[in-house]
Amino acid sequence: MYNNQFKIKELRKIILYHNYLYYTLNDPIISDNEYDILIQKLYLLEKKYKRLKDHDSPTNIIGSNLNTHLGTKKHLSPMLSLNNISNINQFLDFETYIKSKLLLEDDIIFCCELKLDGVAVNLIYKDGMLLEAITRGDGFIGENVTDNIKNIKSIPIVLNGIDIPDVLEVRGEVIMLHQDFVQLNQYAKITGTKLFSNPRNAAAGSLRQKNAEITKQRKLIFFCHGVGFFSKSSWKFSSHFNVLEIFKSWGLPVHHSICLCKNHDEVISFFRMMESTRSSLNFDIDGIVVKLDSLILQKKLGNISRAPRWAIACKFVSKLSQTKVLDIHFQVGRTGVITPILQLSPIKLGGVIVKRVSLYNKYEMEKVGICIGDIVTITRSGDVIPKLVSIDLLNREKNKLKLIIFPTHCPICNSFIQQNNGIARCMEDWNCIEQRKKKIIHFFSKKALYINGLGSSLINQLVDNNYIFSPIDIFNLHNFHFSSLHKVGEKLTKKILDNIFSSKNTTLSRFIYALGICDIGINTAKILAKELKNIDNFVNVRISELLVIDHIGKEVANNVFNFVQNLDNRIMINRLSNIYIINDI
Ligand code: IVH
Hints:
Elements: H1 2-24, H2 32-48, E1 72-74, E2 84-85, H3 88-102, E3 110-116, E4 119-126, E5 129-135, E6 141-143, H4 146-149, E7 167-176, H5 178-191, H6 199-207, H7 212-217, E8 220-230, H8 240-249, E9 259-261, H9 264-277, E10 285-292, H10 295-301, E11 303-304, E12 307-308, E13 311-315, E14 320-332, E15 338-349, E16 352-358, H11 362-368, E17 371-372, E18 375-381, E19 385-391, E20 402-403, E21 417-420, E22 423-426, H12 433-443, H13 456-464, H14 479-483, H15 490-501, E23 505-507, H16 508-514, H17 522-532, H18 535-539, H19 543-547, H20 554-565, H21 567-579, E24 581-583
Parallel strand pairs: 2-13, 23-24
Antiparallel strand pairs: 1-6, 3-9, 3-10, 4-5, 4-7, 7-8, 10-13, 11-12, 14-15, 14-18, 15-16, 17-20, 18-19, 21-22
Helix pairs in contact: 1-2, 12-13, 16-17
């Protein structure tokens, strides 16, 4: 019993901490799946040991720690959460439960919708005019985001149509499209502001701005998924599906993927269809929501603490796997950024073996407080890149762990690491052998000044042997340089030397991209090439000229200007432009 009391207490602490990260900071470190597992564990323990139940347990309250800079407002009727399930059998249990509670024998009609991964908002309309918009908060009181919400184009300020209730609460979700999230983070990278870890956090951060003008610039979207309070004198809604149809007729946005299912088989088909088409949507969903369609039956069933008995979230299960952290190494990137890479005990995930996972940066590593020996959950984001989901904090054997400390010096050249905005960087540039290798590899990569046969393994060997120190040295190589290299015979040497000799024709955009200036991808390089026209203009460009170019922000302009003003870079560009014939396009 004592052990369980301890476990319950620890779980509550952990969940409250994650609530704080999610609701207050918009910066969670675990996935929804992981969070749900924690809630479920706590719920089961509290169910088993009723004596240890507590009114303030996170299982009773909807997680919130209001960040009150916006002011708070009360909902007219509580905003509930949803219970989650993650397999079909659990859905069939849910149906059986409803049937037994309502003494039904016939098939039940369910309304199925997408479970939008966004920020829940309550819109209050009075006489058809948008009066207030409030975030869910603790379910009773939320943040007043009225001014910000009025800047979301898809939300009507005035409802149009017949029989609009005098007072109406519209519930829905504010989301951000993938492309807008990517663009926002690209901009944040350039301006050095905080990056968002996913579209939902970006939507939450954008909605909870003190300055509503910022919300206006962020492209947020809203979809309704339900009704709260409504004055009954006017309209009588007959079913949930009918509510959404009527909402549409009044001008409220409702996503088209709604399915009225006549029985559980149709629900299961809808779930499977959405699971398989999920990756083609341009916004995030994390499952479907199944709702009893009849409002009368919904009322009969009622709610249990924080969730209705008549609805359930059927979550998609992402591929997750647990493994152990064996070690860590710190990778030095082309521009000197140091990235922590966890070495894992190999696991199979979605058909491939995962041996390592990259943490985003120093800040990310320290935020999660990872130790060697930790058991971690890994997923493959977008089913490709392995990603750390969470650390099993509950079963940590403290005496067997070794906390990972971020190095103060570059693991390659031992120079002092500089830090800015949570990003750690080795500033030695070409003097750091790892940066040198990566810069040369980038210089001769496919989108840059590509030379067939000159790949990373060859360049690494040439640098290790001190045969090359910059891209220019490639053009001074002879047969004998290759003779000592691994897996490079005479035939290959001749081919590479021929290719080097015949690869001296290029375009200005490729040339600019090859220089590897911070934040200059191939598209920005094309914009610069189009505007500046030739290499002389590029080298002598002034900051004022850069700032007037479309799509070139302050940060990029500074990076270009600083690069071309650096004497070593000017010498390198000059020597390279004597080797290459640089065409305009
Ligand atoms: S219905 C009483 N429908 O999921 C019913 N919620 O995990 C409450 N959500 O707080 C919500 N898509 O913010 C409903 N189609 C949908 C939804 C949806 C996303 C959110 C909502 C809720 C959370 C619960």
